[in-house]
Amino acid sequence: MSKKELFPPVNEQMDLIKRGAFEIIPEEELIHKLEKSYKENKPLKIKLGCDPTRPDLHLGHSVVLRKLAQFQSLGHDAILIVGDFTGMIGDPSGRNSSRPPLSFEEARENGKSYFEQASKILNKEKTRIVYNSEWLGKMHFEDVIKLASKYTVARMLERDDFTKRYKGGIPILMHEILYPLAQAMDSVAIESDVELGGTDQKFNLLVGRDIQREFGASPQVILTMPLLVGTDGSEKMSKSLDNYIGINDPPKEIYGKTLSIADELIYSYFELTTDVTYDELKSIKESLTDKGVNPRDIKRKLARILVAMYHSEEEAVSAETEFDNIFVKKGLPDDIPEFRAETGLKESNILDLIVTVGFAPSKAEARRLVQQGGVTIDGDKISDIAGTVKFDHDKILKVGKRNFIKIICS
Fold first, then answer.
1. Confidence band (pLDDT; 50, 70, 90) for 1?
2. Residue ending a domain, choose from 328, 358, 375
3. Is the CB of residue 78 less than 8 Å from the CB of residue 48?
């Protein structure tokens, strides 16, 4: 295969690489690496570190994974590093307190789950997956001392989260200071040409450049991607904040959650989480400034695209139809699950029923849902937390916007 068959021209590569990117450090160095790669017909090694703390991926994770997939599409080698060893340290990035470490077994198991889900975005057969315990686990204490001697405490304390914690009197533990150095050794071990990460990873990625130089290697270029704002419209997407759209969520969940995002996030979601063309992006931007266009119609298109990406075109159409039936036509879903009331039981407290069918983890949470007006029986709002549901005929219980269940009465 000739180089022209393996790699597109460098200017075309840069057009795709720069799409949605927040920062490339340094950009001219990336161009030089791409030119050398093109000339020598040799792919670059593109590194992405995987934090195995949480195994469930959402659209926020997809932003940087999609950038790795774009490098793959350009003919470069994608290397996904599972931090099974660094997971036992806990990445302090963006933290105002020490992160609880994982056990080695937990980190490994989460890493496997991460890769399986990431394979919805990456070319699984062309992705090299490695565990950093392969090299970090072999280091002796002498090696750690030598590594630590290559970086100063002053430089380490320059990172924003450490600075804030230090000024606030919040403890910074020694093992947290070692984390960026351990991540940097990943770049040394695989001879990384480019490392990807979110903007909150910039410090760690820059340490990787410095440590590669210390080991006599050519420093990696770093490329950071914006942090995707979650469905709450203010914080970065996070499962702990419950403002996420999971790539493994059911089609109707992806569709419904997408329609809930703030209008000002529509363009960035199209740019960072989909493959729409530059012309389509331009058209979307123009439509969003047109007072004659309802932003909800643009969000519906986004929702269909996302469902189709992670499920199928057919399920995207089905999810939209069901959403319209429930929220536009005020109908009911086609596939309402059923719950059979205990034989002989004539009634149940509404809070107990919500917990029993699995729509709330506790009576306290069920009480909150009732008090917020999110609970109905056969379309009638329930406002009394002490109210009872009589099992005299089959009923439809609705909790929140999307949780339906049919209570079958014996």
1. very low
2. 328
3. yes
Q: Where are the alpha helices (DSSP H) in 311-362?
A: 313-323, 350-356
Q: Is the bond leading into 171 cis (omega within 30 degrees of zero)?
A: no
- Listed in order, strand segments (DSSP E) in 179-310 are 194-198, 221-225
Neighbours of 296 (CB within 10 A): 11
Q: Cβ contacts of residue 268 below 8 Å, gap of 6+? A: 226, 228, 229
Sign of CA dihedral 253, 19, 159, 47: positive
Beta carbons of 251 and 223 less than 8 angstroms apart: no
CA of residue 381 relative to chain centroid, distance: 35
* pTM of the predicted structure, to 2 decimals: 0.78
pLDDT in tens, 30-66: 999 999 999 999 999 999 998 777 778 999 999 999 9
Q: pLDDT per residue over 140-190, tens digit each?
A: 999 999 999 999 888 888 887 888 888 888 888 888 889 899 999 999 999
| Claim to verify: residue 292 and residue 313 sit in the same structural domain | yes
Token output for 297: 């119609």
- Please give the Cα distance from 44 to 114 (Å, whole number): 23
Are 182 and 89 within 8 A, CB to CB? yes
**CA–CA dist 223, 232 (Å, integer):** 27
Q: What is the chain's mean pLDDT, rounded? A: 88
CA distance 122 to 115: 9
245 is a domain residue: no
How many Cα atoms are found within 13 Å in the side-chain-facing hemisphere of 391? 18
219 and 257 share a domain?
Answer: no
Instruction: Identify the helix (H) or strand (E) that includes residue 77.
Output: strand 77-82
| Judgement on whether residues 322 and 355 belong to the same structural domain of the protein | no
Q: Look at residues 258, 338, 329 and name the one whose alpha carbon lies nearest to residue 298.
A: 258
Report residue 341: phi and psi, to 5°: -65, 145
Look at residue 80 in the predicted model and tell me its pLDDT: 94
User: Do the domain assignments include residue 306?
Assistant: yes
Domain range for 64? 3-225
